[in-house]
Prior knowledge:
The protein has helices at residues 8-26, 28-48, 64-67, 69-75, 78-86, 91-99, 102-112, 114-118, 123-133, 153-173, 178-211, 218-245, 253-278, 284-320, 341-371, 373-386, and strands at residues 53-60, 134-138, 144-150, 325-328. The chain is of the alpha+beta class.
Amino acid sequence: MPEKPITKSHTDDEISLIDLAITLAKHKKVIIGAPLIVAVITAIISFIIPPTYTATTQIMPPQQQSGASALLGQLGALSSLAGASGGLKNPNDLYVAMLKSCTVSDNLISRFKLQAVYETKFPSETRKALAKASVITSGKEGLIAVQVEDEDPKRAAAIANGYVEELQKLTQVLAVTEASQRRLFFEKQLFQAKQALGDAEISLKQVQEKTGLLQLDEQAKALIKAGAELKGQIAIKEVELGAIRTFATGNNPDLVRTQQVVGGMRAQLAKIETGSVSTSKAPEAGLEYLRKVRNLKYAETVYEILAKQFEMAKIDEAKEGSMIQVLDKALVPDRKSKPKRAMMVLLSAIATGFLAILYAFIKEALQNAKKDTETEAQLTTLKKTLRWN
């Protein structure tokens, strides 16, 4: 059988591959030499760059939902709404923002004298340098990682642990968790109730000294007791209203319902107060004494209720507010994190090799174009077109 003739495309492919090989061989000094030279220079530079060490600490912040159960248990159906609104946010985001705050940064800068370490002139520049050297992230597992880079491994670990310590100090000052916010609210209310109780005691004592009255009849005592208990219930409902307003709008049906209940209780209280005065047959001095006793009883009841709520909030805050647990404390790193010399040398050599091959093909193409009269004329026209007029 006769041999199969070689087609034109097959011949062109062989010539093309041969041309590529010839081009690479012709410029082998550049293709091999340039990457070697750049690799050597990169290696020298990598040894000049001071090593950097990275220290990492992991913390587990408290979860805000757990502390809310005591108050939400009193709100009944409102607990589901509060839980839903609370689930829209990741509580760890708050602690990440606190770690990145200027307060924490300034304390670390002052504590470790970072302005001299980073050789900066202004505090704002020092904050930027610290932020650049620090990576604070919140993981899906609920943990917060703090990574700090520094040329001194001991200082890197100290700053990373310093972040956690400053966060713990900050949470003791700020009302971060739901329990701490309740504690702050009841603390203010309790302070006002204590002042009101003291004023009521002084006022009653002055009336007793003035009138000499020391006892009430049984009917007056019963009305005053009922009124005090009702006023205490009103105080609890008002606290619930304050809690509902933190996550509900003015048109919320539960908010409207609770406001109606409070309005009805206040109307009932007004009737009791009117009855306690009208049923008393004492003269004007007796009426004044009755009002002072009633005010004192009200003040005592409200103070007792707020004191209990305040103590519950303090217990919840102690459980969750200071429970920033350190899962992994930052240790002094024993190996540098960068520069990664081998990676730098390898990448620089590969990049230079590609550029050298590209240079070889471009140079070969230009040389071949000069041999072709038509192509050379086109190149000349292109050069004239690209020139500035």
